[in-house]
Amino acid sequence: MNRTIYIAGKNSRKLDSLQPSILQQRFFALIPCGKDSALVATQRGIELLDCRTKQFQLISLYKTNPVAVNPLHPVQMMIMENKTCIVSEGKELFELDIRKRQYTSQLVNLQNQSFTGIGYITGIHSDRHDNIWLQTENSGIYKLNYRLPGFRYFGDTKGNNNFVKVIHADKTDNRVLCGTFG
Q: For the segment 82-104, what is each residue's pLDDT rounded down to a tens digit?
């Protein structure tokens, strides 16, 4: 996603396109958030898009400058429960309260450091056991239990062999499938 969002009408099947404003510049990620809305990561921050009116509302500015870390995949998002969104900005991970329109916490490991050592987060996924799976470039795969403080690292000690392209949680067989480069 970069320069255009397409919205298809439910009944009319009309396809509308939205371009970023001067402040938004680019769209990085989009996830559904409610019946007729979506959260959109733009250049300026996290915004709520009303798909019926095609209007944006700024939810929050970023805590960091994620584009400086990674211009290709600067922000990833995932809705956890009700109105809580997990947001990655480069290699940092935050919890965003959508109702309050503010970040509530930064998610860190037990040493109070960001989860990824080198590289950055390229995707966030969850499974039915409240685990969050982070796919990264150069730092392997991380499994975090959202309810408990522990985390587990999947990868090797050579950072250049840990570029994860995609993660798929197979809920029927209770396993995680990963595609990597290298």
A: 688 999 988 888 999 999 999 98
> What percent of the residues of the chain are helix, what percent strand, and what percent coil, each to the nearest 5?
5, 50, 45
Question: 149-155 long-range contacts, Cβ below 8 Å, gap at least 24?
Answer: 149/110, 150/110, 151/109, 151/110, 151/115, 154/178
pLDDT digits (tens, 9 = 90+) for 51-72: 889 999 999 999 988 887 777 7
What are the φ/ψ torsions at residue 87 (nearest 5 degrees)?
Answer: -125, 130
Q: How many CB atoms lie within 10 A of CB 152?
A: 11
Q: Please choose, from the candidates 45, 75, 47, the residue with its C-alpha nearest in 3D space to the C-alpha of residue 62.
A: 45
Q: Which residue has the higher pLDDT, 133 or 155?
A: 133
**pLDDT higher than threshold 60 for residue 28:** yes
Q: Are strands 75-79 and 15-18 parallel, antiparallel or unpaired?
A: unpaired
Buried (b) or exposed (e) across 101-126, using 16+ Cβ within 10 A? eebeeebebeeeebbbbebbbbbbbb
d(CA 157, CA 11): 52
Name the residue among 40, 107, 105 with its Cα closest to residue 76.
40
Number of helical H runs and strand E runs in the chain: 1, 16
